[in-house]
Write a structure and sequence with these properties.
- It is a single chain.
- Helix content is 20%, strand content 45%.
- The chain is α+β, with helices and mostly antiparallel strands and 51 residues long.
- Strand 1 and strand 2 form a beta hairpin.
- The chain starts with a strand and ends with a strand.
- The model has no long low-confidence stretch (mean pLDDT 96).
């Protein structure tokens, strides 16, 4: 499965969002990786799952 994630610098609603994807067979492991890849000082906005 593939998780597509979006983040943005915290408090800056006009900033360009950051998008990335993580692929893994295990949902929990993929979600952990998504959360670990959120840049420092950013807020995770959205996660979409594609199976």
């Amino acid at each position: 499965m593939k998780l597509l994630a979006t983040s943005r610098p915290t408090g800056d609603t006009s900033a360009q969002s950051n998008r990335w994807e993580v692929e893994d067979d295990d949902y929990d492991r993929a979600l952990e990786r998504v959360r670990a890849e959120v840049p420092a000082g950013s807020t995770l906005l959205h996660i979409r799952v594609e199976r």
